[in-house]
Amino acid sequence: MEPSRKPLNVLTRQLNTNISILLKNGVEYRGKMIRCDGFMNIMLDGASEFIDDQMVTNYGSLLVRGNNILYIEIDISSRKLKAGP
Questions:
Q1: Contact status, residue 18 vs residue 30, Cβ threshold 8 Å
Q2: Are 40 and 54 in contact (CB under 8 A)?
């Protein structure tokens, strides 16, 4: 696989964009990715927690540990960050 297409390289090029992270336990976090390291630990700014697509709570900043991540959706629309219609 060419270096520019490796998952970590793709992810780090998306800094300061809105992402959605689904954890292995079914919890989803949405926010702006401001940091990402080699272990795919991700820091979100303006993060919101969702369970079954219902917003549970808001966080200012949030660190998600990489080994808990099931998948990441990058460049989500701003309307998806907010709960409701």
A1: yes
A2: no
CATH of the domain at 19: 2.30.30.100
pLDDT digits (tens, 9 = 90+) for 21-77: 999 999 999 999 999 999 999 999 999 999 999 999 999 999 999 999 999 999 876
Q: Look at the chain and report how many structural domains it folds into.
A: 1
Q: How far is CA 15 from CA 32, 42, 53, 54, in A?
A: 8, 10, 24, 25
57-65 contact pairs (CB < 8 A, 24+): 59/31, 61/34, 62/29, 62/31, 64/21, 64/23, 64/29, 65/41
Domain for residue 81, yes or no? Answer: no
Residue 83 lies in a domain: no
The structure tokens listed for 83 are: 């709960």
Domain containing 17: what range?
3-76
